[in-house]
Design brief:
CATH topology of the largest domain: Pectate Lyase C-like
CATH architecture of the largest domain: 3 Solenoid
Strand content: 35-45%
Largest sheet: 10 strands, parallel
Helix content: under 10%
Shape: elongated
Distance between the termini: 108 Å
Number of strands: 44
Number of domains: 4
Number of helices: 5
CATH class of the largest domain: Mainly Beta
């Protein structure tokens, strides 16, 4: 059967027309309305700040009537500010918040897109955090040595108007409205470009601001250090520039008082005579150096006094190599303990000498100290057989350029040396240990222990290029206990060698073992092949610790 071409065209026409008719008869489908999409930022940089304002640029949303903005500083535990805006670009500042934003403060921003009906508002969109910029200021940022427990050093650069005042605020006074203390800035302060303010509480945060005739120039946050726990009897000599305050304060100090000295300041020993215990400690300071006791006139003891302890911690001692001591005791007395902890002792005739009267020191101790340039009375000299020292303990310390080391005219109970570094000790031909009393009064009864120590060559004070020393004098019954102790190859004995000393002989010289033992007094280990580099000598110089 043949199909007419015109019939096919007609059939197709009716088919397409039917589809249109069927489609026209079908009801139009309606989709349910949903919330607006959450707003997003329109720039890759994210939120931005200019001075103490925040710039926000959102992606445009045609269906949004406006945007509801919330600002927080604690991740929306609380809301600082909220407002509405009908533009996708806006600046958060006093115009929108009715007060200025805080400087150098982190804010969080979230935005809700608002539709023509509340049911279709977007969910809140967190846009992120941004810090406002720091207040433009010529005030210096405080460093670690610009604050103590009760004082702060305020610094600035001389730009613009001169600084005339300083105000201290609590850390909670965010807008600096109620100062808790104020200070005038004198001409000498302006010349120094700094002023120290006091009266602060320990372990407390403060805001300290500088002003030019009432105009705010800047502020910084200071955190004071915790108070030193020294008890009730504290004589605080920090903050004074008068070197003679020490002796005067000691005269009025109660038994067992702590004498608080300031780093970088000098205090004269003033020939003070002790009759009671005292403890000298380094307080907080604005410099990295230790407080200095100048020994131009030496410490002594009062006739007939019985003293429990005289101790020094983190103190530096200076004096005349030809004539000064820390102690030069010439009166009868007893002291249970004299100790130096983490001290620096430099250029003296001797550290402790008993030269008159009679008495006894129970314990004489140096720990974590650096001692150099000590003349003929050494680290300790018992110069009268009517005096004695019971136990001598030298630990974790460095000794260099010392003519005599330890000397006594009477028996001692013990000598303990542990973790020490020595070089140019003693002078050529002198004894390391000189117990020079008469028969029966020239021994260390419970022996000498030298452990974990490194000993270099003698001190060539006459520049004759000889370095040999003697081991000991007297000590007929003294037992030496030597363990893990090294000597450099240029340590030589000219007599009275110490039995079994050293435990090990280093094959190199002092100059090869240490970085710079002669000029810089740098005893860091220079030879990495040295066997005792990690377990012998003063720990401050050991390798691998």
């Amino acid at each position: 059967m043949k199909i007419n071409k015109s019939n096919i065209i007609m059939l197709m026409f009716f088919f397409v027309t039917g589809l249109f008719v069927l489609n026209a008869c079908e009801e139009e489908k309606e989709y349910p309305r949903t919330r607006l999409f959450q707003p997003v930022l329109n720039n890759e940089e994210g939120l931005m700040s200019v001075e103490n304002s925040i710039i926000v640029e959102l992606g445009k949303m045609k269906a949004a009537e406006e945007y509801f903005v919330e600002v927080s500083r604690d991740s929306f535990v609380t809301v600082d500010y909220s407002f509405s805006t009908d533009t996708n670009y806006f600046v958060i500042d006093k115009t929108l918040t009715n007060e200025e934003l805080l400087w150098f403060t982190i804010y969080q921003i979230q935005v809700t897109a608002i539709a023509d009906a509340d049911d279709y508002n977007s969910k809140p969109s967190f846009l992120g955090s941004v810090r406002t910029q720091k207040y433009p200021s010529n005030q210096g940022v405080p460093g670690v040595f610009d604050v103590t427990d009760t004082r702060a050093k305020v610094l600035w650069t001389p730009v613009g108007k001169p600084i005339t005042g300083i105000k201290v605020y609590t850390i909670d006074d965010e807008r600096l409205t109620s100062p808790i203390s104020e200070f005038e800035v004198a001409e000498e302060d302006r010349a120094a470009e700094e002023k120290i303010v006091d009266g602060l509480e320990p372990a407390t945060e403060y805001q300290i601001a500088i002003y030019s005739d009432g105009e705010l120039r800047g502020w910084e946050v200071y955190t004071t250090k915790p108070a030193l726990e020294l008890g009730e009897n504290v004589i605080d000599l920090t903050g004074t520039d008068n070197p003679d305050t020490l002796a005067a304060a000691l005269a009025d100090a109660p038994e067992g008082a702590y004498i608080l000295l300031e780093g970088g300041k000098t205090y004269n020993a003033g020939g003070f005579e002790f009759s009671k215990s005292a403890h000298f400690v380094s307080g907080y300071s604005f410099v990295q150096s230790l407080p200095i006791i100048e020994c131009g006139s030496n410490f002594r003891t009062v006739e007939g006094s019985a003293i429990a302890a005289i101790t020094f911690e983190n103190i530096s001692f200076h004096g005349d190599f030809g004539g000064n001591y820390v102690f030069n005791i010439d009166k009868s007395s007893t002291v249970d303990e004299i100790s130096f902890e983490s001290c620096r002792i430099h250029s003296l005739r001797g550290i402790c000498r008993m030269k008159g009267g009679e008495g006894h020191i129970g314990l004489y101790k140096l720990n974590d100290c650096v001692v150099d340039s000590i003349n003929g009375y050494g680290v300790l000299t018992v110069d009268k057989d009517t005096w004695s020292v019971g136990d001598i303990v030298l630990s974790n310390s460095t000794f260099s350029k010392i003519q005599y080391f330890l000397v006594s005219r009477s028996n001692s109970n013990s000598i303990t040396m542990d973790g020490c570094t020595l070089n140019e000790v003693p002078d050529v031909g002198r004894q390391m240990f000189r117990w020079r009393g008469g028969d029966g009064n020239n021994d260390v009864l419970n022996g000498v222990k030298i452990h974990n120590t490194i000993w270099g060559h003698g001190w060539d004070m006459d520049n004759e290029e000889t370095y040999a020393v003697k081991g000991f004098d007297g000590m007929p019954n003294t037992v030496f206990d030597i363990k893990n102790t090294y000597a450099t190859s240029d340590l030589e004995f000219s007599g009275n060698e110490i039995p079994a000393f050293p435990s090990f002989l280093y094959s190199g010289t002092a100059a090869q073992l240490w970085v710079d033992p002669y000029v810089a007094l740098d005893y860091n280990i220079n030879d990495n092949a040295f066997q005792g580099k990690s377990d012998s000598g003063d720990p401050r110089w050991r390798s691998g610790l």
